Amino acid sequence: MKKILVLAALVISAMLLLTACGQDAPPAAENGTANDAGTPAANGAAGETHLLVVQPMAAANLDPSLTNDVPSARVFHLIYQTLVYQDADLNIIPGLATEWEFLDAQTVVFTLREGVRFHNGNILTADDVAFSLNRAGQSPHIAAITSFIYEVEVLNDNQVKLISEYPFAPMLSHLAHQAASIVNREEVERVGDEAHGQNPVGTGPFRFHNLVAGDRLELVRFEDFNSVVPGLPEGQLPAVEQITFRIVPEAGVRTIELETGSAHLLFDAAATEVARIREHNDLVMLEVPNLALNTWLGFNNQRAPFDDIRVRQAIAYAIDIESIVDVAWAGLGQVATGPIPTTIRGALEFPIIPQNIERARELMAEAGLADGFSTNVWVNEGNAMRADAATMIQAQLRALNIETQINIYEWGILLPATAAGEHDMSLMGWTSVTGDPDYGLFPVYHSSNWGDAGNRNFYSNPRVDELLDLGRTSSDDAVRMEAYREAQILIMEDLPLIPLWQSVELHASRNNIEGFTVTPSGVFPLWNVVIH
Amino acid sequence: MYKYILKRLLMMIPIILGVSFVIFFMTYITPGDPAIMTLGEGAPPEAIEALREEMGLNDPFLVRYVTYVVNMVQGDLGNSFMTRRGVVDEIMDRFPTTLMLAFYGTVLSVLIGIPLGIISATKQYSIFDNAATAAGLLGVSIPNFWLGLMLIILFSINLGWLPPSGIATPSAWILPVITLGTGSAAMVMRITRSSMLEVIRQDYIRTARAKGQKESVIIWKHALRNALIPVVTAVGLDFGFLLGGAVLTESIYAVPGLGRFMVDSIRTRDFPIIQGGVLFLAIVFSLVNLLVDILYAYIDPRIKSQYK
Fold first, then answer.
1. Are A429 and A295 a contacting pair, CB within 8 Å?
2. What are the DSSP E strand ranges found in A1-96?
3. Are B278 and B287 in contact (CB under 8 A)?
4. Left if phi > 0, otherwise alpha if psi is -120 to 50, otherwise beta: which for A503?
5. Residue B93 and residue A213: Cβ atoms within 8 Å?
6. Which of B35, B172, B298 is facing A38, going by the closest CB pair?
7. CA B103, CA B112: separation in Å to the nearest integer?
């Protein structure tokens, strides 16, 4: 027995030692004002320069060419810079490029800001820009944003020429996306893609400090930052010296972190937590309409009976859109009023289709379906709000003798199956990440994009195709906006889907935080944050 | 003894190969395209195809499996589809956290469960025994996610003594360890009690008492040692399962452990992580079982003589 006790004592000692060794040293800011992350006491001592953020998911990778998820994009926005930025109204403003000139519909020359420094001390060159964008253009991970890039050539030390695959009017809004961030060629080639994704180098106002996989990511202020980012006066550094992003998967625990002062900001508040945050005296709930037409009731337009517009219209009249949105999404966000969210430039607002059972029955009778039919609606697993909406739709369609089976599948099954057209109806959505109407309309409604590329409703209208092509290729903004106006009207007449819910960005902060601006894109300029 | 250990270690080779084949086959037949999962909705078909090629998903099953095994033998389990990092790095980043959590949870369960089990057995049907039995039942019945949230509300919100989540400081470990340890402690207590009850009725215990041996010596030296075998088995198994990941506890307290990571990987169809993780856990589980068997020999010399 003694031997066992001695053995146990040795093992425990070794484990304790291992634990001690396993803890990462507290992150140190460049000015030496190091603070322990994640504890209320430590946060109190953190002074007012260490910003603590809790969020549900980690950034998948810190190399902008290797991933296109929102948590990563939020970090890219701080570490890297893009040639251009978008302001709060989605207008294009200078970034690493001070000016640009379109030579023709496919060619644009960018003049770069001079003397901009990377985190490793290198100076930004035209070669870095060409390398970054050519690399981005080849990456399948961000193809939806950057595949329009055919080639980027170096013209001289501070000018590059970008040639697109095809005339592409929304080019600048795509280049403002974090996927088109500029990396340091020398660093990427020296360490390789994988290592760069774990220890990135950019020109942004914050630089990478430490990553504890699945737990936290720490950034510190780049003291030699000498570029320009939206909202930060030139030559000025961010007030925050250090940012720690912690991953807290449980929604309730994230709120507790904020309530107890263990965090200053909470990203992606769960809908179930909103009321609690609103009621808390020390917390501020921030709700901003975002770029997502989060949920629509989509029809498989090539499959009977949904290939008959009268059936689609009948279903639109049979359901009570406002009550569905009100109940399923608990009053958050708003009823969607068109084929793209109202936050997108050029979006039209259509009247909400009112519930009218009599009219719905007439349309069903005209379509020869007065006795109804059986159908299904596909929903992704893990989205309780969509599941609730599907249940309400199921109940309301019984008024037309339509028996609806709700198929709840995880994304891994749902995405390929809906791309293959195996569904009758689906509750899905689309985020127009660039803020340009092209991104909201072309993938979802153009017939060349049936399936995986975004048109999972298998909608086709040659005139809409023409208009979307025109909007994509015309360099005249007025022509573009007119094309998109007409396209939206035609789409709502055809009703390939019924827009249901336009979502909101849901984030929260403690009331001692100033300058935390929630943008529709869900990517935040944290360099403007001040902690009081 | 050493020969036995060597034999057991060699036996792990077919186990690893078997597990690798089963998990590889299961991920192969699992619906869901990792390329689509990685790129999300609206990815251009050519990008999906390019990524499938990059991920090696277009090769036939056997080619992929043989390549996997050849790389595995060289210590290369591939790269995560989501993070692009090496699977071994990803696992080894998280396993120490899971190991610590499982170890401390197990230590707590033993420290609580064995003394309570002994006292319950030696004072059978007393108030203490009944109270301990009720507490044990409660411990087994309370779900971890509920207990976890209650502990956070009490110690983090109301008292403000401990951080609600994370592992940044030693104090942050207290709540997850209590959550994990109390459930296991109830199980250890029940097994210790029943095993002790059986042993203290044996003739040799009666003989020891007849010889005038002190009760504490009888219990701690003669009875406990003989009662420990089923307890060690249960604790070993429990420890092995905890190494597989205490998913709920890890999620509630935001502990970046292997269990939570594996579940996330299943959701995103990150096949290399799933395959590597299961393989790794199979090896760890086999090693834990071997350690338990070795521990038997130290507890009971009769068993040691059987290890050849």
1. yes
2. 50-55, 84-86, 92-94
3. no
4. beta
5. yes
6. B172
7. 14
Q: Which residues of A touch B86 (CB under 8 A)?
A: 194
A273 touches chain B (CB under 8 A): no
Distance of alpha carbon B175 from alpha carbon B151, whole angstroms: 7
Q: How many CB pairs under 8 A join A and B?
A: 191
- Nearest chain B Cα distance for residue A311, angstroms: 27
DSSP reduced 3-state for A149: strand
| Torsion angle (degrees, nearest 10) of CA B117, B120, B123, B128 | 140
Interface contact flag, B84 A416, Cβ < 8 Å: no
Rounded to whole angstroms, how far apart are CA atoms A351 and A161? 45
Say whether pTM exceeds 0.95.
no
Half-sphere exposure of A370 (CA within 13 A, CB side): 5
ipTM of the prediction: 0.82
How would you classify the pairing of strands A292-299 and A425-431?
A: antiparallel
pLDDT string in tens for chain A (532-residue length): 455 444 455 454 444 444 444 444 333 333 333 333 333 333 333 458 999 999 998 898 899 998 878 899 999 999 999 999 998 888 899 999 999 999 988 999 999 999 999 999 999 999 999 999 999 999 888 888 998 999 999 999 999 999 999 999 999 999 999 999 999 999 999 999 888 999 999 999 999 999 998 899 999 999 999 999 999 998 899 999 999 999 998 899 999 999 999 999 999 998 889 999 999 999 999 999 999 999 999 999 999 999 999 999 999 999 999 999 999 998 898 999 999 999 999 999 999 999 999 999 999 999 999 999 999 999 998 788 999 999 999 999 999 999 999 999 887 788 888 989 999 999 999 989 899 999 999 999 999 999 888 899 999 999 999 999 999 999 899 999 999 999 999 999 999 999 999 999 999 999 999 999 998 888 999 999 999 9
A154 in Cβ contact with A126 (< 8 Å): yes
CA dist A222 → A202, A205, A413, A525, B296 (Å):
10, 5, 43, 15, 58
Q: Which residues of chain B are within 8 Å of residue A66 when distances are taken between CB atoms?
A: 84
E strands, A281-387, where?
283-289, 292-299, 334-335, 373-380
Q: Are B83 and A61 in contact (CB < 8 Å)?
A: yes
Give just the sign of the alpha carbon dihedral B192, B195, B199, B200: positive
Q: Confirm if B117 and B196 have CB atoms less than 8 A apart.
A: yes
Q: How close B161 comes to chain A (CA, Å)?
A: 9
CA triple B27-B32-B34, angle to 5 deg: 80
Q: In Å, how far are A5, A61, A167, B276, B281 from B81, measured between CA atoms?
A: 45, 11, 33, 12, 20
Q: Is the previous residue joined to B14 through a cis bond, with omega within 30 degrees of 0?
A: no
Which residue shows structure tokens 């709060």?
A: A88
Alpha helix ranges (H) inside B200-304: 203-210, 215-217, 224-243, 247-252, 258-267, 271-299, 301-304
Measured CA to CA, the distance from residue A378 to residue A368 in angstroms comes to 25
Q: Which residues contact B157 (CB under 8 A, 6 or more apart)?
A: A256, A259, A260, B164
A chain contacts of residue B36, beta-carbon cutoff 8 Å: 412, 415-416, 419, 452
Does any CB of chain B come closer than 8 Å to the CB of residue A438? no
